[in-house]
């Protein structure tokens, strides 16, 4: 069992988590800031209120003409203003997935009280806390990176006018679309000069990013990390690519109901865009600067199925959940709530239900479970991060949001799926993310007692 000293640095603790090695855990890791842009709202606060209210953010695609497509529904941002965070020159040069990450990161550091004010409003220069600049880390995940810009440039280069006039692709095509640009540009924007990493691990990318940032802080490599996921995949290439693979919903008569995890008639996920970035911080460091504390990250599991490119394996998913639980120093009986990956694919939802039943046994019928993608659609890397942030808020507020769009639950997904918002005194929860390639990432979250909270 992991033991912490009251109000500060934890005891050194040994724990075995499936590798046969002894791991020494020395520091608590807490979340002190959250920022997001999602199909539900252009801030985390607005998005969280929509989640609790059970509102859907999905609708018919407007980014391109999808009338000739069987897949016509997506979760698009609405009224997002990149100009509030970036200059017009930056907007012209950066793929939207980077723009979303910058917006979410700036909101997160503001929320964590790490921005003291703007020194140059026109250039969007921010006066940040000195602890950010020297040794903070930035780890941001993305599955598809700058695919929107890649498609745009490819369409341009294939046009007859482009060839006849001898035009060339943008010189910013390669740097602005690489997966790591979200992390590195956030660091550049905020003057962060510490550890920097972009992670691309399919739909688990955002959760993996949070988990790796957690490990950095708990082992003393950083006091603060900006971490999360970002995605801008609403383009023809992605819609048709996921669609042909059999992953997307074809329901377009009522777009807000197209994403229906665990429902008997579910037929695929709704592809969405967005970003969520959190500030993770050493507990002692957060208390010292009287930072707001949302909750604690206590464990991280990361496994691969070694099974199939697209078909999930319940045993591999269960191993990731158990790894995270063991690292948190608890048992499955301690889990009060599960935020499911639950994308609304036929095989995926059943595999996750089987994994939960495999690990939790009889308890799987009583643990409350929510599928937030029923409202956001699938934001790929951003979903994992947003679902972690939402789980933290569930712990903090004692509220479990609903899963919407379930008319008849699939009998093969016989879990305790919450369909109406409910109040619950939950202390410990997990958030699951699983992706193509059989990659599994799970985070254990814990509520922080009132006496341990900062101002």
Explain how this protein is built.
It is a single chain. This protein is 33% helix and 20% strand. The strands form five sheets. The protein has an eleven-stranded mixed sheet, with helices on both faces. Strands 1-2 form a two-stranded antiparallel sheet. The protein contains 15 helices and 19 strands. The longest helix is centred in the C-terminal third of the chain and has 17 residues. Helix 13 links the parallel strand 13 and strand 14. The chain has 455 residues and is of the alpha/beta class. Helix 3 crosses helix 8 and helix 9 crosses helix 15.
Task: Provide tags for this entry.
455 residues; alpha/beta; eleven-stranded mixed beta sheet; two-stranded antiparallel sheet; disordered N terminus
Radius of gyration from the CA trace? 21 Å
| Poorly predicted residue ranges | 1-24, 119-123
The amount of beta strand, in percent, is 15-25%
Shape: globular
For the record, give the distance between the C-alpha atoms at the N and C termini, rounded to a whole number. Answer: 29 Å
Kindly state the percentage of residues in helix: 25-40%
- Number-wise, the strands total 19
Mean pLDDT: 90
Q: Strand order, biggest sheet?
A: 9-8-10-11-3-12-19-18-13-14-16
| Helix run count | 15
Question: Based on helices, strands and strand pairing, what is the structural class?
Answer: alpha/beta
Largest sheet: 11 strands, mixed
